[in-house]
Amino acid sequence: MTNKKKASIIKFTDRIKASVTKLKDAILLHRNNTYRLNDLLNSSGRRFVNKFVIPPKKYSLRERFIFFFLEKSIRIHAKAHARRKPWGLSTRHLLNYPEGSLGKALGEFLDKENLEPIEKLERHDVFHILLGYETDFKQEAGLYFFLFGNGKKSFFAIGTILFSACLFPEHWPYLYHQYKRGKAYYPLVRIKFQEFLHDNYDDLKKIVRRQSVNNLELLNKLLKYR
After folding, report:
1. How far apart are CA 21 and CA 191, in angstroms?
2. CA atoms of 120 and 56, how far apart (whole Å)
3. Can you tell me the distance from the alpha carbon of 147 to that of 145, in angstroms, rounded to the nearest whole number?
4. Range with the poorest average pLDDT among 42-56, 97-111, 129-143, 182-196
5. Total domains present in the chain
C-alpha cells in the first residue's frame, strides 16, 4: 500500500471518529433536554408524552436523521406499553425513600444526573443503578445488549441493539461482552421494580449478580418472577 493511500485511510478514520464523538455528545445533550421537558410538563399537571424534539440546524443531516429515528422508536415503545401504569414518582419523591433502599439509590442517581424519570419507562433507570451502567451513549447501548442477553426480546430492544451495532462498529467487542454478561446475571426483565423500592439496594445488587444474601423476605418476593 502506498503512503498516499495510507494517509487517505488515516484521514478518513479520523473523520469517522470525530463524527462519532460529536454524535455521542449530541445524543447525551438531547437526552438531558428530554428529561427536563418531562419534569416541566409533570410540574404543570399535564401528562407527559415521550418525545424527542428534532434538534436545531447546527447538527448535521445524519445526526438529525438519528434523532428522528429515536423519536419514532420511543413513540412505538410508548404505544406498545400503553397499559403500563406510571409510577407517579419524581426524583424529589424518590430522594425521600429510606436510606439504603432501592428508591433512595434511584433518586440519588437521577439527582446526580439532573434527570427525572420518564413515564412508564421508570425501570430503565433502575437497570442503570443495579447493573452499573452510566448514561453515555456507549454504556446505554451496552445496557440494551445486556438486557437482550438477559431475556428482553422486545421490538424496541432488538431495534436498539441493531441500530447501536451499525452506528458503533468499534464497540462490537464491548457490546458482545455486555450480551454475555446479561446471560450470566439473574433474570430481571419481568420484575416489577416499583414493588421493590423500599427493599435493600445492596442486597438487590448481590442477587442480580447471583451472590448469596440472608434477606429471605426479598428472596421470596423475587421468586414469583421466576
Report:
1. 35
2. 28
3. 5
4. 42-56
5. 1
* Alpha-carbon span 24 to 47, nearest angstrom: 29
Within the chain, how many helices (H) and strands (E) appear? 10, 0
The cell for 111 is 439527582
Chain length of the chain: 226
Residue whose C-alpha cell reads 451472590 in the numeric block:
211
| Cell numbers for 132 | 452499573
pTM of the predicted model over 0.70:
no
Lowest mean pLDDT of 91-105, 133-147, 173-187, name the range. 133-147
Amino acid making up residue 17: K
Question: Cα 20–24–26 angle (5° rounding)?
Answer: 115
Distance (Å, rounded) from C-alpha 117 to C-alpha 38?
A: 8
All residues at 6 or more sequence positions from 98 whose CB lies less than 8 Å from its CB, including other chains: 104, 198
Range of the domain at 133: 3-223
Sign (positive or negative) of CA dihedral 158, 132, 150, 198: negative
DSSP 3-state of 189:
coil
The string of pLDDT tens digits covering residues 130-176 is: 999 987 778 888 999 999 999 998 877 888 888 888 877 888 999 99
Q: Can you tell me the distance from the alpha carbon of 208 to that of 160, in angstroms, rounded to the nearest whole number?
A: 23
| Sole residue written with cell 439504603 | 100
User: Which residues, in sequence order, are bridge partners of residue 200?
Assistant: 101
Of 151, 115, 96, nearest in space to 34 by CA:
115
